[in-house]
Design a protein that fits this description.
The complex is a heterodimer of chains A (218) and B (658). Chain A contains six helices and five strands. With 218 residues, chain A is α+β, with helices and mostly antiparallel strands. Chain A has one domain. Chain A is elongated and about 70 Å long. Chain B has two domains: 457 residues, Methylamine Dehydrogenase, Chain H (7 Propeller); 124 residues, Immunoglobulin-like. Chain B is built from seven helices and 45 strands. The longest helix of chain B has 40 residues. The chains are: A alpha+beta (218), B mainly beta (658).
Chain lengths: 218, 658
């Protein structure tokens, strides 16, 4: 009912801002893996971006690769990961879709935009996990250090002890911006729903639902 | 028989008593002092010292880097002597650093470290140090803590009064401790007065690159010039040099050069010198000296031969230089933070004379001269003296300042440091040191803004201070707290060689700029192999060049064949690591030089000349990783006339390396 009506300007701005927040992944990494080891008091880590991987500090990535060769892990080579060629386009497509949804002001389109973002995010995280699995299990049989039954898959989220290294994997600012974008979209839908209901003059009839919605936003 | 036994018994009792007493007092002293001061010098594990101290290595020719207040030794920076520990002076890249007009000189005697200054305050860019024996000045880059330049001084012998800097490091100065015939020639020693001369050298320092050049020399009478310091603040533009042996003795100097009541401090107006140079009032003289420069992009030193020097003669350049009469065979000449007082350490004098810079200028203006030597006016002592410190201890040598109005002077003979007040000239405190202190060091103590928290006594004799190590004992430093009214001894610590002089600087100025690695992509060494793909072996006549890489935990190539007896084999080892604190070493059996220690991103070359056919191992000498012991390889050497072709590789399992 309310979905057929064009969304209010405030909500549409929220959607547009939310969509533009996605662009943050082009200036901020989306994930960070920190490696803690006794020999690296200064820290060692890498950032995963939407289109490449970098060290936390200059040379960290090659130093991680140098250490990984002892356990026979493949070199982490951003150029060998084809997803990095696709992911930026997916983000751009989602930004465009979000902006169109904002311009058109169609609630269903906004919901579709949010839905597609969540699908892309889940696929992305699954893909990330699969790469981690590959790196962690697909080990060179001639590696100097071989521990029966040991694999070196880094955690997807959280902390894991891998020999002398404590690996911590957490989303980074790029991901938080995407989450913020999604939340803005959801907020826009909720506000708009309330506004639509108010214009229709029926809001008095749904006081409980309204307060529930407000609580959710808060 | 009985009587002598009784006497012996009595003596024994006395000895036991005295021994016991002195043992007790020693114990007491130790307990008391340790409970008081242990916390002052204790730097807990994993924490940092407050200051870096750069101590001259004396007859080791190097510089030692210590921390204060702990006294811990961090690094020995090789400067004037070969250093087999990392290959300095042995590797092909660093051999040119030790080139001189006398050929390759593998050793020297380094005396006075001097930090570069901006506005009269140590800025932490470079450290300079002099070579006394074969006259040279070196510059150390304090980002890499490596010697990056050495300049030889022509017309010089015994470069002792060196390398003191002017207020903005415009110049580093040097002067001759030994008068010699200039230019060198075959003359009877007894004709000293006729033929022997001395020089004062001004080395310009490029403010951006630090590059040193011999800007000019001043020819001065043939005395022994001992130490120097530049003016600062109002006296900026002047440099003061002590001299002794104004008697011009050439034998038994301990008697013959100690006759006169006063020797001279030479006050040189270098701004005036610059004017005279601009006016062309110099003589360009033919000389030979070397200026050796190390480039940390090519990781290679180049020795440049130079052949000309501009010389100023005081009699052609009025106002360039004045002599300040100073008792008696003065050693140190130290300018207080205000730039007004010039303190002389007359080592045989009974007072410390302090000259006034402003009175000196006035005396020059009023022409209060008592004579002239070779065109150099000698000022009247009474006209320039600001005050004399009475009872300063025996054998005053060197003075530094705490920035709070006090001066600290070493007394070599009475083995103490004496604290006195500028202006009133009264001694306010004294502390014994163990034993026979030469120089002392307060962080920034020769600058406009001393960090007056500690003084380090740099002692010549240690005797019973440490566990004995045979006839040759360590030299040592002592750390003394000067933050309160009374000086307080905190710590003894041994030093490298003889610690003539030291300079210290707050750690925070240097530590954040210290390089961790050399960037591999900036490595421009002509024989670098910047990846394992670039590793190779090339024969050029009887020279074999091995472009070798090192990374945890293997060399590439690690199997080399086709080398023959009579070949000259160059191992050019590039450390591919870009990780902090992962050097790789390289050593090969029978090498007649040393090892090389290669820092991350660096290339170094070791030459090896095999003498007999065989298969010889090489290995990494720096425990780099868990598989360091596996970091090794073989080189096959065939007879001179063999037909074995060059081949090489680092082979994986199943390949031909197995």
């Amino acid at each position: 009912m309310a979905g057929q009506q064009k969304m209010g300007i405030g909500s549409r701005i929220l959607v547009a801002v939310g969509a533009l927040l996605y662009l943050g992944v082009f200036i901020l990494p989306i994930w960070k893996i920190s490696l803690d080891a006794p020999q690296y008091p200064e820290g060692l880590g890498m950032y995963i971006w939407v289109n490449h991987i970098t060290g936390e500090k200059p040379n960290d990535l090659e130093n991680i690769n140098t250490l990984n060769h002892y356990i026979g892990m493949d070199k982490i080579d951003p150029h060998a990961i084809p997803e990095f060629d696709i992911m930026p386009w997916i983000v751009v497509a989602l930004v465009v879709l979000g902006l169109i949804a904002a311009i058109v002001g169609n609630r269903k389109l906004v919901a579709t935009w949010i839905g597609l973002t969540l699908v892309a995010a889940i696929l992305g995280i699954y893909d990330f996990w699969k790469w981690e699995y590959d790196y962690g299990h697909n080990l060179n049989p001639n590696a100097p250090i071989k521990i029966p039954g040991m694999s070196y898959q880094p955690p997807l989220l959280g902390t894991k002890q891998l020999l002398n290294i404590t690996a911590t994997s957490l989303p980074y600012w790029g991901t938080y911006l995407i989450i913020a974008g999604i939340l803005l979209g959801v907020l826009a839908l909720l506000i708009d729903r309330k506004r639509a209901a108010a214009t229709a003059g029926i809001s008095r009839n749904f006081p409980t639902q309204r307060s529930a919605a407000t609580a959710k936003v808060a | 028989m009985k009587r002598s036994f009784r006497i012996l018994m009595g003596l024994g009792v006395i000895i036991a008593l005295v021994g016991g007493l002195s043992y007790c007092s020693q114990q007491q002293q130790v307990t008391k002092s340790s409970s008081d001061v242990a916390s002052r010098v204790y730097v807990p594990p994993g924490q940092y010292d407050e200051f870096y101290a750069f101590m001259s290595g004396g007859f080791s020719g190097q510089v030692a880097v210590h921390g204060l207040p702990s006294g811990r030794l961090f690094k020995i920076i090789p400067v004037f002597s070969q250093y087999p520990e990392n290959g300095y002076g042995y590797s092909e890249e660093t051999k040119p650093m030790l080139m001189t007009s006398h050929g390759f000189v593998p050793w020297d005697d380094s005396h006075h470290p001097e930090l570069s200054q901006t506005d009269g305050v140590p800025d932490g860019r470079w450290l300079f140090i002099n070579a006394n024996n074969t006259p040279r000045v070196a510059r150390i880059d304090l980002r890499t803590f490596e010697t990056v330049e050495i300049i030889e001084l022509p017309n010089s012998a015994g470069n002792h009064a060196s390398p003191f800097v002017t207020q903005n490091t415009e110049y580093v100065v040097a002067s001759t401790r030994f008068a010699v015939p200039i230019p060198q020639r075959d003359v009877p020693i007894s004709e000293y007065k006729k033929h022997f001369g001395a020089t004062i050298s001004f080395i310009s320092v490029d403010p951006e690159t630090g590059d040193m050049d011999l800007a000019f020399q001043i020819r001065v009478p043939g005395y022994d010039y001992d130490l120097a310091h530049a003016g600062k603040g109002p006296s900026h533009g002047w440099v003061f040099f002590t001299s002794y042996n104004t008697e011009q003795a050439y034998s038994l100097l301990e008697i013959n050069a100690s006759r006169k009541d006063k020797d001279f401090i030479a006050a040189v107006n270098w701004k005036k010198a610059e004017e005279y140079l601009k006016q062309g009032k110099y003589v360009e003289e033919e000389v030979v000296y070397y200026n050796n420069e190390y480039d940390d992009k090519t990781h290679t030193a180049t020795a440049h031969k130079r052949t000309k020097v501009k010389v100023l003669y005081p009699k052609d350049c009025p106002g360039l230089i004045y002599y300040l009469p100073t008792p008696k065979s003065p050693h140190g000449v130290d300018v207080d933070p205000s730039g007004e007082y010039i303190v002389a350490g007359g080592k045989l004098a009974t007072v410390i004379p302090v000259h006034s810079f402003s009175k000196m200028l006035k005396a020059i203006e009023n022409q209060e001269f008592e004579g002239e030597v070779d065109g150099i006016p000698v000022l009247k002592y009474e006209a320039i003296i600001a005050g004399e410190v009475e009872n300063p201890g025996l054998g005053p040598l060197h003075t530094e300042f705490d920035g709070k109005g006090y001066a600290y002077t070493t007394a070599f003979i009475s083995s103490e440091i004496v604290k006195w007040k500028l202006g009133t000239w009264e001694v306010v405190d004294r502390i014994p040191v163990y034993y026979s202190v030469g120089h002392l060091c307060i962080p920034g103590g020769d600058s406009r803004k001393p960090w007056g928290k500690y003084v380090i006594a740099l002692n010549k004799i240690t005797k019973d201070r440490y566990l004995p190590t045979g006839p040759e004992l360590c030299h040592a430093a002592q750390l003394i707290d000067i933050s309160g009214d009374k000086m307080k001894l905190l710590l003894d610590f041994p030093t490298l060689g003889e610690p003539h002089y030291a300079q210290a600087i707050p750690a925070e100025i240097l530590m954040k700029r210290s390089a961790k690695i050399f960037k591999l992509e900036e490595n421009q060494h002509p024989y670098a192999a910047k990846s394992e793909k670039e590793a190779r072996v090339e024969r050029q006549g009887n020279e074999v060049h091995i472009y070798m890489t090192a990374i945890r935990s293997h060399f590439t190539p690690d199997n080399i064949e086709g080398v023959k007896v009579g070949d000259k084999v160059y191992f050019h080892v590039t450390n591919l690591e870009q990780d902090w604190d992962i050097p790789h070493g390289f050593a090969i059996i029978g090498a007649n030089n040393a090892e090389i220690l290669v820092m991350p991103g660096q290339t170094k070359t070791l030459v090896w000349e095999p003498k007999k056919p065989g298969v010889y191992p090489f290995y990494c000498t720096d425990f780099c990783s868990a598989l360091h012991q596996e970091m090794q390889g073989y080189i096959r050497v065939s007879p001179r006339n063999a037909s074995v072709k060059i081949s090489y590789g680092t082979y994986k399992e199943g390949e031909s390396g197995q």
